[in-house]
Amino acid sequence: MRITAWASLAALLLAFTAGGTARAVSSADRLLPDDPSKALVVEHCQECHSVTLIAQQRISEKAWTAELVKMEKWGSTLPADSNAAVASYLAKYFNPDTPDAPPRYIRSPKQPG
Amino acid sequence: MSVSRSTFLAGAGALAGAGLPPLAGAAAETYNLRELVAKPYDLETPLQYFRTFITPTPAFFVRSHFGPPVDWPPADFALKVEGLVQKPLTLTLADIRALPAYDVTCFIQCAGNGRAFYRPRPAGAQWTWGAVGNARFTGVRVKDVLARAGGVQGAAAHLGVVPADHSPSPQTPLFNRSIPLSKALDDDTILAYAMNGEPLDVAHGGPLRLIVPGWAGDNHVKWLLSISPQVDETHGFYMDTAYRYPDQLGEPGVPVPPDKTHHVTEMPVKSIIANPLDGALVAGGPFTLEGVAFTSRGEIDRVEVSADGGASWQPATLGSEKAKWAWRLWQADVKVVPGPNTFCVRAFDTAGGEQPAHQQWNPSGYFWNVYHTVTVRGLR
User: Fold this and answer.
1) What predicted TM-score, i.e. pTM, was given to this entire model?
2) Which domains does chain B have, with CATH numbers?
3) How many angstroms separate the CA atoms of B43 and B336, rounded?
């Protein structure tokens, strides 16, 4: 627990520090572990929603598959023959046993966009 | 605002202990909200902002399915009133503001507030406690708008509501909704153009949003384009599949067919501890617990707190500020002892509702109202 707390603080400080550097870390780079399927998620999911929505889920591979099937019906450009690989990738890193990521905060009011 | 030592410690302890944000931004009107989803746009209110009767607009949670519409609102914005009315018409904001104005102070809570606490985790935005707020909305009664259109034709039983937001993909279902006409015609159901005395901002649904006091947030449709009395409910994903609750709760993890579910409308009684924050370091000695309590059914009857993790309970004092659909503030004096202290709160409403210690799972993770528990470390 104590380690988690310090890790959270470190992440928070890192976030502030990173914000002051020239290189902005995209939420995809920050949240999606490297994997052959990562590029598919980066390319095909962000038109409609940010990867933060993906990375906060803690669901099974079966539930990920159901989400991808739903997204296919909703117009996702992800090739259907990639569904199995992407569901496996997402379930590997965002499953019911994955610890929650530290929350992120923005200063409000902020105009969306 | 003065900051007591205990509050300061609570904030500082939370920052170090749980990755929570500083209490507020440097400028008076800025607040740090938890960004759940940047796109579409979902922001959760951190608990330290639940210590006022009115939630300031910039601190009020934001929920959207597709994000605010692009280039919104258009310069020629107008609301269409169509369907089963005697005289379909189009109303500009000036037309709407010319109708009698009504204030409704109400809490709005996303049905999925607390989804993150269910096991197994339902898919969806992982709200914890902060998808709720209490605000004063100003607008016109839906019944007055329909009367302006000559009244409703006899066959109508529902009010269709069409918003402007949509997904970039044309195949994604629209957030077209309806509510029963009986609720739409309630004196307190309004089309709001102002929030907390200011023109309704885009993030919270401006220029015009439906306010359905007491009902779950999905009914308070934002970015309105049209309202239309109609014979049947609107159909589509967001009516027939989403925002539905099982008629009978079943085994965790097992889906429930839509025909065995009903719309989410009224929400069960709930209370939240806003001070201290979970994980905070708190000076030992007397401490005043603070928070909010709300219900869709009747009104808050009483609030109780526990200083021993739920073994024994003592009454809290309800705040004097009241409104029919609003939340109540509460406070309770306790003693913080050195070491771990576990505080709980539970509320009871006049309809007989009370908060449970455990809650049965439902597929979409709606209506979490297990009593809130925080553990803090008392300093000598």
Assistant:
1) 0.90
2) 1-266 (3.90.420.10), 270-379 (2.60.40.650)
3) 32
Query: What CA–CA distance (Å, rounded) separates B301 from B317?
Result: 11
Judged by CB atoms closer than 8 Å, whether chains meet at B126 and A56 is answered as yes
Kind plus residue range of the DSSP H or E element containing A39: helix A38-44
pLDDT in tens, B59-100: 999 999 999 999 999 999 999 999 999 999 999 999 999 999
Chain B nearest-CA residue for A12:
B19
Residue of A nearest to B32 (CA): A107
Set of chain A residues whose Cβ sits within 8 Å of the Cβ of B164: none
Closest CB to A5 among B17, B30, B43? B17
| Cβ distance of A9 and B41 shorter than 8 Å | no
In order of A11, B196, B243, the CA distances from B20 in angstroms are: 11, 27, 30
What are the pLDDT digits (tens) for B1-34?
A: 333 333 333 333 333 233 344 444 444 478 999 9
Query: What is the ipTM metric for this complex?
Result: 0.89
pLDDT value of residue B125: 97
Give how far A3 is from chain B: nearest CA, Å. 10
